[in-house]
């Protein structure tokens, strides 16, 4: 028995994914064209003969169906028999699709198995998300004035980015005028308040001196007796001999930690979005915590993140995670939804304030 499989997290509800799996026209757009077998219900033929890893067309029969959670198929490819299972599980961001195929009669060569699994993964991670985004776009209510819009996809402002920026500049100007007017009023109020008088200077104290009667009877000032400064009194003072101080031997500061480096790569693209990947490397000799800040293009938003914690502030997304061991690396991926059909890469990426490679 040989087994291949793949799984993908999708930012779409389970019923939409189920439709893409079971509708023949949609199935032909992201995997292979399908034709019904005349007179036989729940049976069709997939035209897979030209796909990598396939030798011929595959005749498929549905053996179990639980809408929209599970579909099981029995497959016959020129005598090679397999069982194919597609399981859909709801998640917080949408749903998770797990596809598993097991041989029951016959086998694949190692090269054929690898090509077949690669073809399956590419179909699930690139072409299927593009079809799902296209389906979501078809379900957006573009009629204005007839109730609220559906929230399947981000809606671009009717005024366009340039007019929105002009409106923001007008609002900022009005706010600045209001703040300036408030400051002038506060200054006028403070300047009209009475100033506190400075406390009066203390009166001069009279000089106390001894007096003696002169010949005319008027008092005559005589200097008061002052103790003489003799050598003995000077010698009685303790000498100020500086005591020995411990010498301060400078200690060498530890070398600064080696900064982390990171590189960005667009792992896959699709209609109205893409998947980004960041690899954080620690070339140092000790574990190091990391913070990566990615600046998305205007009109983009995060759908899902694997292997990192994240928070969003406008177009800036801050990613954090566990410390990277010395000489090791940490990889995390994030799904981005873009309001334009052609996905746009992030405008910036930094790790610890230093630019990431790849952008």
Automatic annotation (TrEMBL):
Compositional bias of kind Basic and acidic residues: 335-347
The keyword Transmembrane appears for this protein: yes
Domain annotation CBM2: ranges: 253-359
Alphabetized UniProt keyword annotations: Membrane, Transmembrane, Transmembrane helix
Transmembrane segments: 170-190
Gene3D superfamilies: 2.60.40.290, 3.30.530.20
Composition-biased stretches (Low complexity): 221-251
Superkingdom assignment: Bacteria
Protein name per Swiss-Prot or TrEMBL: Cellulose binding domain-containing protein
Organism the protein comes from: Micromonospora vulcania
């Amino acid at each position: 028995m040989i087994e291949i499989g793949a799984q993908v997290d999708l930012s779409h509800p389970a019923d939409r994914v189920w439709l893409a799996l079971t509708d023949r026209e949609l199935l032909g757009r992201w995997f292979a064209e399908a034709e019904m077998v005349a007179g036989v219900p729940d049976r069709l033929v997939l035209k897979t003969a030209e796909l990598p890893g396939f030798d011929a067309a595959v005749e498929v029969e549905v053996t179990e169906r639980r809408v929209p959670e599970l579909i099981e198929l029995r497959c016959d490819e020129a005598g090679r028999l397999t069982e194919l299972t597609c399981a859909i599980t709801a998640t917080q961001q949408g749903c998770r699709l797990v596809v598993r195929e097991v041989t029951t009669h016959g086998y694949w060569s190692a090269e054929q198995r690898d090509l077949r699994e690669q073809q399956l993964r590419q179909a699930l991670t690139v072409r299927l998300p593009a079809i799902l985004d296209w389906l979501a776009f078809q379900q957006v209510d573009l009629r204005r004035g007839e109730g609220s819009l559906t929230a399947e996809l981000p809606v671009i402002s009717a005024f366009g980015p340039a007019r929105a920026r002009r409106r923001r500049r007008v609002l900022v100007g009005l706010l600045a005028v209001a703040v300036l007017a408030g400051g002038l009023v506060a200054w006028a109020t403070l300047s009209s308040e009475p100033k506190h008088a400075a406390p009066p200077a203390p009166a001069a104290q009279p000089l106390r001196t001894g007096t003696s009667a002169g010949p005319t009877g008027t008092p005559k000032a005589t200097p008061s007796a002052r103790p003489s400064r003799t050598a003995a009194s000077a010698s009685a003072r303790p000498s100020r001999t500086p005591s020995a101080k411990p010498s301060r031997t400078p200690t060498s500061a530890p070398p600064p930690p080696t900064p982390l480096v990171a590189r960005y790569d667009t792992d896959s693209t699709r209609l109205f979005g893409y998947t980004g990947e960041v690899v954080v490397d620690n070339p140092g000799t000790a574990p190091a915590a990391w913070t990566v800040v990615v600046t998305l293009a205007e009109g983009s938003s995060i759908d899902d993140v694997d292997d990192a914690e994240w928070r969003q502030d406008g177009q800036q997304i801050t990613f954090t995670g566990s410390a990277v061991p010395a000489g090791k690396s940490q990889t995390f991926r994030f799904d981005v939804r873009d309001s334009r059909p052609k996905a746009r890469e992030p405008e910036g990426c930094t790790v610890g304030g230093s630019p990431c490679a790849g952008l």
